Amino acid sequence: MVGAGVVGMSTAAALVAAGEDVLVFESSDVVMGERSAGSSRIFRLAHTDPELVRYASRARTAFDGWSTRAGTPLLDPCGCVVSGTDAPDRARAMASAGAPHSFDLADGTLPTRSVEGPVLVDPSGGVLDVDGVRRLLSAEVGTVVHHERVTSIDEGTVSTPDGIYAADTVVVAAGADTPALALPVGIELPQALEHHVRFTFALPDDGPVPAWIDASPGRVSTYQHRTGPGRWSVGATLPSSLVSWENGQEAASVASERAVVEYATEHLTVDPAVLDRLYCTHAPDTGDGILFRRSGPVLAVYGENLMKFAPVLGETLAAAARDGSTPPDLG
Ligand SMILES: Cc1cc2nc3c(=O)[nH]c(=O)nc-3n(C[C@H](O)[C@H](O)[C@H](O)COP(=O)(O)OP(=O)(O)OC[C@H]3O[C@@H](n4cnc5c(N)ncnc54)[C@H](O)[C@@H]3O)c2cc1C
Predict the structure, then answer these.
(1) Distance 175 CA to ligand 1 centre (A)
(2) Which atom of ligand 1 is nearest to the CA of 223?
(3) Ligand 1 binding site (Cβ under 6 Å of any ligand atom)
(4) Distance (Å) from CA 33 to ligand 1 centroid
(5) pLDDT tens digits, one per residue of 120-138
(6) What does the alpha-carbon distance between residue 319 and residue 58 come to, in Å, rounded to a whole number?
């Protein structure tokens, strides 16, 4: 296994539960510290593809299983609201997959002055406790994680500065580094990267609030949710000219902060002073879909927004690692 993000850790947990010998290589000192960093994420069934709605439904059930194992709820079932242009497409996909949904949003539900355009309410959505997920997976498979950087992968071998390791199967779940690591064995994945920053603001009222994906016409498109007591975090999808890889992290962070603070000032009821920032690399060409690629014993996975699928994605990868198959792409 290459990478101890949520995908690698979830896959390792499923493989260990199946009685397999597993070794996870992680280049940093911590687990779930790159794209899986931070305390929380949005969970939702609301996708534009019925297949992804069904996969997320399976993940919802699997998160209940993780909550039981953790002895604490890992999903706050506060729901998720989608507003704007693609809400009808998501509603159609949810209807086709038999997922519960509605179009009724009471005034004052969200910390905003107004919601524009069509609205979709996903009552199965909510906010994932990523700290809790990290604690659970570290307790279950932390001992099989080796903090060594993988320098190359060949057919059935993994090289690190400390040695060369042979394996029946090598699962590459190295997040942003997966395309470059998998390319030498003939696996091609989207290479493009952008910078992304999520910003946290103070939320005046601290009752339950649904997560929100706001693509209201005329606004920058955002996702936002409660990330702790009195805290509301907002990330925006910005034009690539503002967050391009070539312009660098600093320029992208400044441009992102300007755009998100402007959005918060104009549309939200939060205090628009930034309390916290969470940076990550973002793959602009993958959307909500998941790509699986295999070359002999090497199986690679790549996608965005994978936290919400993590428990079921780990099972999918573990099954494919054991039987030599390649899961079909999703979405
Ligand atoms: C700000 C932000 C908001 C998000 N919001 C949502 C959301 O609301 N809902 C949702 O579902 N998802 C969301 N996501 C996306 C989701 O968190 C990620 O898709 C998911 O965590 C990715 O997990 P991963 O295991 O694929 O990658 P990562 O967590 O990046 O793990 C890959 C690991 O591989 C390691 N690695 C890399 N190269 C090597 C190497 N050569 N050798 C050894 N180890 C290596 C890295 O150090 C890293 O730990 C968000 C992400 C961010 C950052």
Answers:
(1) 5
(2) 8
(3) 2-8, 25-28, 32-36, 41-42, 149-150, 173-175, 177, 181, 198, 223, 235, 278, 280, 304-308
(4) 8
(5) 999 999 999 999 999 999 9
(6) 15
Domain boundaries, the chain: 1-74+128-191+286-331, 80-123+193-282
CA of 288 to the centre of ligand 1 (A): 14
The domain 80-123+193-282 having CATH identifier 3.30.9.10: the answer here is yes
Among residues 267, 130, 274, 263, the alpha carbon closest in space to that of 202 is found at: 274
What residues contact 298, with CB distance under 8 A and at least 6 apart? 153, 155, 156, 169, 170, 172, 182, 185, 187
Q: How many other CB atoms sit within 10 Å of the CB of residue 83?
A: 24
To test the ligand 1 pocket, which listed residue (47, 307, 309, 313) has its Cβ within 8 A of the most ligand atoms? 307
C-beta neighbour count of 153 within 10 angstroms? 24
Q: Which atom of ligand 1 is nearest to the CA of 305?
A: 12
Q: Which numbered atom of ligand 1 lies nearest the CA of 7?
A: 25
The model's pLDDT over 164-223, given as tens digits with 9 standing for 90+, comes to: 999 999 999 999 999 999 999 999 999 999 999 999 999 987 788 999 999 999 999 999
pLDDT tens track for 10-39: 999 999 999 999 999 999 999 999 999 999
Q: Taking the domain 1-74+128-191+286-331, which CATH number applies?
A: 3.50.50.60
Tabulate helix, strand, coil % of the chain (nearest 5): 35, 30, 40
